[in-house]
Amino acid sequence: MLSINKNTVADFDYIKDQVLDSIDSFIYTKDLQGNYTYVNQAVLNLFEKSLDQVIGFADTNFFDLSLSKELKNNDREVIEKGIRVENEESSFIRAKNEVRIFKVVKKPLFDLHGNVIGICGISTDITVEKKLQEQVAEQSFLLDTMLNNIDSHIYVKDSERTFLYVNTRTADLFGNSAANIIGKKDIDILPKNIADHFYTSDKKVFETKTKQVIEETVKDEKGNNCHYISTKVPFNQPGKLPAIIGFSTEVTELFELKEKFKQLANIDSLTNLYNRRYFTLHIEKEYLRAKRYSHPMTLISIDIDHFKSINDKYGHPGGDQILIAVANKLKASLRQTDILARIGGEEFSIILPNTSIASAIQFAERIRVEQSELRITGEWDSEASISVSIGVSSLLTGDKSFDELLSRTDKALYQAKKSGRNRVCHL
Ligand SMILES: Nc1nc2c(ncn2[C@@H]2O[C@H](COP(=O)(O)OP(=O)(O)OP(=O)(O)O)[C@@H](O)[C@H]2O)c(=O)[nH]1
Predict the structure, then answer these.
(1) 284, 346, 365, 404: the active-site residue
(2) What is the pLDDT of residues 265-309, one digit of tens each?
(3) What do you get for the CA distance between the two ends of the chain, in Å?
(4) Does any ligand 1 atom lie closer than 6 A to the CB of residue 346?
(5) Does the CB atom of residue 319 touch ligand 1 within 6 A?
(6) Active site residue 346
(7) What ipTM did this prediction achieve?
(8) Measuring from atom 1 of ligand 1, which residue has the nearest CA?
(9) What confidence category does residue 5 fall into, taking pLDDT thresholds of 50, 70 and 90?
(10) Ligand 1 contact via 418 beta carbon (within 6 Å)
(11) What's the CA gap between 61 and 129, in Å, rounded?
(12) Start and end of every GGDEF domain (predicted)?
């Protein structure tokens, strides 16, 4: 049989106090007036008071209650309703001169007849945890705001092609919500050919474990080409599948602008034919190709006769219109592989790859006739007509550079001029 004597109770109280005092949580009881009837050591440490400075005293001595609203409300709720309250309290501690946040559990204390005679509370300081949570929430908000407003598509995808993250821009591009995309595979979200196209470069990151910068071109739903610069970096977390973080920026406008600039640099603005710069680049290329494969290559030089007099007769703007008409007629005579350029004022050249001198002479003669039959109308009374002189020359086995071909063609043109114009000469 268990016998309890005075000493056993004292021992038990002593042990209980030791246990309660060794707990980091704040344990306390208060009477109905809100005066403390018990506090453990943690409470004394928090208040920086001794036991007799706390027992019998109310919270107003230890908290700034104007800044500790939940404390009073929670206490009132427990006492008035006789219920257990579990809540968070943010309280200003006078001794520490700072606000601390507590997770509190407060219960009513009853007498033998079931009347509420006070409250018992256990509070745990969660200030650091809360601050960390706030910091994480703040950083996550900041990151979300940045990722969702940046002009790039950002996504995280694992090696099994499952999206782990997409920003709003990516979700919009895929025509779905981020919540619907995350957790799904690219092939479940995108048309197979597009998903596979993206996965080809994803795979490269998984295989090489290094960052890849790729230019990607994808057709949108209207069939237009969209150009992207994509940077994909490996993202590995212990215990998880390898993943990549992708940043894709649409550069369609820039790409098209670049292409336009490239074109403009090569195009003559008056006639829209290639200019001398493009011609020079290409004649060298064609020359090297013809040399390497021992293919024939012929050059034609065309010069409008007495263009100075045409300018004098029709004025400079009239002369421009005639140049455009001549250019258009020349363009219409070309084969797909021929390269036509305006290389000077009223001078044009045609590179004829894979063409023998005999066929080139025939072609030049056809051009000469077509040009002489041109009737050009404009802001003048009669129809304007012109003639052209043409020089033709082919690449010879002994040629050391394309300059030799160029100079032979020029000489042939000079001969055509010298021998009366409106004719084709060849060398
Ligand atoms: N309208 C116009 N004229 C140009 C342009 N570029 C050059 N010219 C003119 O073309 C004329 C070329 O004259 P020339 O080189 O003396 O030769 P030509 O009068 O054609 O005589 P031949 O070539 O000997 O038959 C000059 O009057 C230039 O001012 C241009 O872009 N527009």
Answers:
(1) 346
(2) 899 989 999 999 999 988 988 898 888 888 999 999 999 999 999
(3) 134
(4) yes
(5) yes
(6) yes
(7) 0.96
(8) 319
(9) low
(10) no
(11) 27
(12) 295-427
